[in-house]
Amino acid sequence: MGTVFSIDVRSGVSVAALDDVIAWLHWVDSTFSTYQPGSVVSRLSRGELTPDECPPEVREVLALVREASAKTDGYFTEAPHGILDPTGIVKGWAIERASDLLAAAGSSAHSVNGGGDVQLVGTVGPARPWRVGIAHPLRPRRLVAVVTAEDAAVATSGTAERGRHIVDPHRGAPPEGLASITVVGRRLAWVDAAATAAFAMGPERGLAWAEAQADLEALAVTTSGRTRQTSGFARWGTLT
């Protein structure tokens, strides 16, 4: 998945449970990588495998991609660059599943963070919700906002780390006017896909679409540095 993961567990789980989570993330990376020619997804993309010959998790992700595409008017797609590439949802889905593994092992309070996309469960401590800093896309080492939440998911799509890599699939070109968009909701697979789709829509359509989703809120930073947010974002986040 090409990023760094961190796991913060505030209630007791065994070392074996943590090892299972780490093994899961490595399995996801080797299975879904679009950079490894021998990965399942690479072989599926080349037509060397059919979906029925893939592990059930691959079919599950492809079904989630189709669902996200329908919910976003096609702004989230399985082939944003003309070839199969479900990575826009894989990281969030893998983190969400890692969080579920920890919960099944007995954890009632933890965060799983992959490159800034986070699934939160419980609280840091009594009356202490988790605090997630949102990096400013135009000002290195600065935060644009802090999200304060429990049992929530936070994902950001933007240009700061990988440049203009997100494409508006309807135009075949990167959107104009957005430096980043952060989406907050409950489950990271959907929140991650929503952040990618909202960014691909651009600032006006992306924020309007997020505003219409009952389960999401969003904060956008335009290329001029202006911040804009959905009407309910203030329940989750505070601008710095």
Tell me what you see in this structure.
The structure is a single chain. The chain has 240 residues and is an alpha+beta fold. It has a single domain, classed as T-fold (Roll), CATH 3.10.520. It contains 6 helices and 10 strands; from the N terminus they run βααααββββββααβββ. It has helices at residues 15-32, 40-45, 56-71, 87-104, 188-201, 203-212, and strands at 5-9, 110-114, 117-121, 130-135, 143-149, 153-158, 178-185, 217-222, 227-229, 237-239. It has a 7-stranded antiparallel sheet. A 3-stranded antiparallel sheet has the order 4-5-10, with no helix packed on it. Helix 1 packs antiparallel against helix 4 (87-104) and helix 5 (188-201) runs antiparallel to helix 6 (203-212). The radius of gyration is 17 Å and the shape is globular. The chain starts with a strand and ends with a strand. 40% of the residues are buried. The model has no long low-confidence stretch (mean pLDDT 93). Pfam families: ApbE. It is an enzyme of class 2 (transferase). InterPro entries: ApbE, ApbE-like_sf. Its cofactor is Mg(2+). Its EC number is 2.7.1.180.
